[in-house]
Amino acid sequence: MPTKLHTGIMRSERRDIKPAAPDSVIRGLLAVPYAQLLPLEAGDQREGYGKTGDYILAAAVRGNWTVSAYDQYALLDPGQVFLLREPGSYRIQAVSGGLGLLLCLRGELPERLLAGRVMFAGGAAAVREAVLSLAVLEDEQGLISGGTASALAYTMLLKLRALPQSPAREVGSPLVEAAVGMIQDEFPFLEGVDELAERLEVSAAHLTRVFSKKVGISPGKYITRVRIEYAKLLLQDPDATIAYVAEASGFANANYFAKVFRKETGMSPSEYLESGTFDIVHKKSRVVL
């Protein structure tokens, strides 16, 4: 069955993840002091403090959230990410019940890669992938190495940088919120957009139109990306077969999985592992600024 790895982070419990510090070379580029999983009910809030040099990504996975600091404010819809730069005291408050993520970064790369941007529509998927990976590694290994955490954060930053520019505030969409939550919770079992639309009681055409406008990609593309990113995580287990990874990620068979994986990543599953893409500790030259 798909799921000890997938279901662990979906529990409605607060969780704090603190990787070890990387070596001094990596630390100067990119470090991950902590990540937090924050399930909040409507009206609940959390206060925190960002130090000098901190870059704190606040991601609304499910539900709407407000994020505020001394000179920064944003209302986040599901799927959006807001970047707090050296915020000092800050506050996260749930407008509607759901799940949020915080990921604190330090080093030169956040500013250099994100180039002054603060809002990322559809960026919660990238932050969720990084935090999910950290949670899985902590469950399996205990203390996470700083280099591994930095590698995951680097991949996430590249994905955020590739997203289109987005305004600081957009009108919310309950339909998109529900669709994103259902995809993230049930992607191994969803048959596709038609089933998703049927369960949300709308037409597939309407769902695709609204979802694409809000998130920037179609729901079908989003399902595929979530599955591929989860597959990347599973592939790092040396005991996992391609057939198992395909089934656990929601693909019909191993051949179809390999075809989609290559289309999305430019590599076969085995080539992805051999490339060491997920490890900037041993392949520092892969960092592209």
The global form is globular
Span from first to last CA? 40 Å
Strand content: 15-25%
Radius of gyration: 18 Å
Helical region count? Answer: 12
Helix content: 40-55%
Q: Which ranges are low-confidence, i.e. pLDDT below 50, for 5 or more consecutive residues? A: 1-10, 168-172, 279-289
Tell me the total number of β-strands.
Answer: 10
Question: Would you give an account of this structure?
Answer:
- The structure is a single chain.
- This protein is of the alpha+beta class and 289 residues long.
- The protein has twelve helices and ten strands.
- The chain has helices spanning 3-8, 24-29, 109-114, 124-141, 146-162, 174-186, 193-200, 204-215, 219-235, 242-249, 254-265, 269-275, and strands spanning 15-17, 31-40, 45-50, 55-62, 65-68, 73-76, 81-85, 88-94, 98-106, 119-120.
- A hairpin with a 4-residue loop joins strand 5 and strand 6.
Task: Write a brief structural summary.
The chain is of the alpha+beta class and 289 residues long. The protein contains twelve helices and ten strands.
SSE blueprint and pairings:
Blueprint: H1 3-8, E1 15-17, H2 24-29, E2 31-40, E3 45-50, E4 55-62, E5 65-68, E6 73-76, E7 81-85, E8 88-94, E9 98-106, H3 109-114, E10 119-120, H4 124-141, H5 146-162, H6 174-186, H7 193-200, H8 204-215, H9 219-235, H10 242-249, H11 254-265, H12 269-275
Helix pairs in contact: 4-5, 6-9, 7-8, 9-10, 10-11
